[in-house]
Design brief:
The chain contains 19 helices and four strands. It has about 450 residues and is mainly α. Helix 1 packs across helix 6, helix 11 crosses helix 13 and helix 17 packs antiparallel against helix 18. The N and C termini lie far apart (about 65 Å).
């Protein structure tokens, strides 16, 4: 045989081929794992001097967002939203923010941006993601048991990175009852993640009895975290599942839920409540009255006094970015305890428009026939209810799934699919309206 007839080594396929969708799902998995074990990981990584590694998943989300953005086909509306985001960042810098504020805010919202542009890849690898989420749900239940019946070392632990003091886990109680956070940092984050995990897993659960057990365990676990608002939101979401076949009913419910998220802070502004009501009430009502009497009116008054009621304070001027990089030239809110108010404080009237977009988002998801779309519909509905008293943009796992929901709505049949993806979307083998109570053909 001649040498020219020998097979060329350069033409041999590589032995290891890593698809683009696999890289994307691995980044999403790392984010979910870090958020599930954030409290414990911060404690042990600080002991080993590796605290900075915990920031890699969100940094990877931001990096993949930038890479995928070059080939992303999101339509005119998507690019207009990015342009408005850049304008809001410039506005925030005019109001006193620095590059650190804008960069940290972009880092905080990176799971949402990552979910929007990479959602199609996460859909291709949805079963692998579901297995990891099942593990995280089981780990969350174990963390609740450990936190409730033992003394975990990361409880109340704080550490420093440079000149900034960070909390690995906030140890606090309400009316003498310990707020259980498990392996995470906050009990609120834990309850929201348990709700998201169980609703996402419902898309892969064929048995109604298994689904009923899954929901029962989840609602009991959420109750143990002492977050009553999340318990109510999760229960209302379960009540919505049998109603998903009725389009008009769903539209009315979605409109009412979103409108209430905006109306609650307005009620706190216009209704003259007794200032002593917050201390006179007990349990979850005391925190709700505190929001009505103090938190929401004070934030709205601050926005009005500084002239930010129309255009907002700007990107990077609200939330965790202000806590990490304090703005000395202005009085800016760190906590809003209401997502509509949070978005309004950041983007002004545009923020309220973003919040109202939850209605068409849930309706378009509801109109899709896949089980994954119906699971994302229930997740968006549950997060909208929770957003009445929680800053959802600050919860990374929640924003990741919101981004996936937006990606599913934006995705078109003509969008390119990575060559290495072998798990293409298939028609559902089970009816899309399966619930623990009935199956509707």
């Amino acid at each position: 045989m001649k040498i020219s007839q020998l097979p060329s080594l350069s033409k041999r396929p590589p032995r290891i081929a890593i698809s683009q969708s696999l890289i994307v799902v691995l980044v999403a998995i790392s984010l979910v794992l870090v958020e599930t074990f954030s409290g414990a990981l911060r404690y042990y990584f600080d002991q080993a001097g590796l605290s900075a590694l915990l920031y890699l998943p969100k940094a990877a989300c931001l990096g993949l967002f930038g890479l995928q953005l070059l080939n992303f086909k999101g339509g005119r509306g998507f690019w207009i939203m990015l342009l408005l985001l850049a304008i809001a960042a410039l506005l925030g810098m005019l109001h006193g923010a620095v590059l650190g504020n804008v960069g940290f805010a972009l880092y905080m919202y990176s799971p949402f941006l990552f979910g929007v542009v990479c959602g199609v890849h996460l859909e291709h690898r949805k079963r692998l993601l579901a297995l990891v989420i099942l593990f995280c749900l089981a780990a969350s239940l174990v963390g609740i048991a450990l936190d409730k019946y033992t003394a975990v070392p990361w409880k109340g632990y704080s550490y420093n990175i440079g000149d900034t003091e960070l909390s690995a886990n906030q140890s606090w109680s309400e009316n003498g009852v310990d707020r259980i956070a498990g392996f995470t940092r906050l009990s609120t984050s834990l309850s929201v993640m348990i709700a998201i995990f169980s609703l996402y897993l419902s898309a892969f659960t064929r048995s109604r009895w298994v689904m009923a057990v899954l929901f029962a365990i989840s609602i009991a676990a959420i109750y143990l975290t002492t977050n009553k608002s999340t318990v109510v939101a999760f229960a209302c979401t379960l009540a919505l599942l049998p109603l998903l076949r009725n389009r008009l009913t769903c539209r009315a419910i979605f409109c009412v839920v979103v409108a209430m998220g905006i109306a609650l802070p307005i009620i706190g502004l216009w209704v003259d409540f007794d200032p002593n009501a917050a201390t006179a009430q007990s349990g979850s009502l005391s925190s709700f009255y505190d929001r009505l009497i103090n938190t929401w009116p004070n934030l709205a008054h601050n926005q009005w006094v500084q002239g930010w009621s129309v255009w907002g304070a700007g990107f990077g001027m609200v939330g965790s970015s202000v806590s990490a990089f304090p703005v000395m030239t202005a009085n800016v809110p760190i906590v809003a305890d209401n997502s509509a108010l949070y978005l309004w404080a950041t983007f002004g009237i545009g923020g309220l428009a973003l919040y109202l977009m939850m209605v068409p988002l849930m309706m378009r998801l509801r109109d899709k026939t896949t089980r994954l779309a119906r699971a994302l519909t229930s997740i968006c509905f549950c997060l909208t209810l929770i957003s009445w008293t929680t800053d959802i943009p600050e919860v990374s796992v929640a924003t990741l799934f919101l981004g996936m929901a937006v990606a599913l709505v934006l995705r078109r049949k003509a969008m390119p699919v990575s060559a290495g993806s072998h798990d293409r979307p298939r028609p559902p083998r089970q009816p899309a309206y399966a619930t623990p109570f009935r199956t509707i053909n």
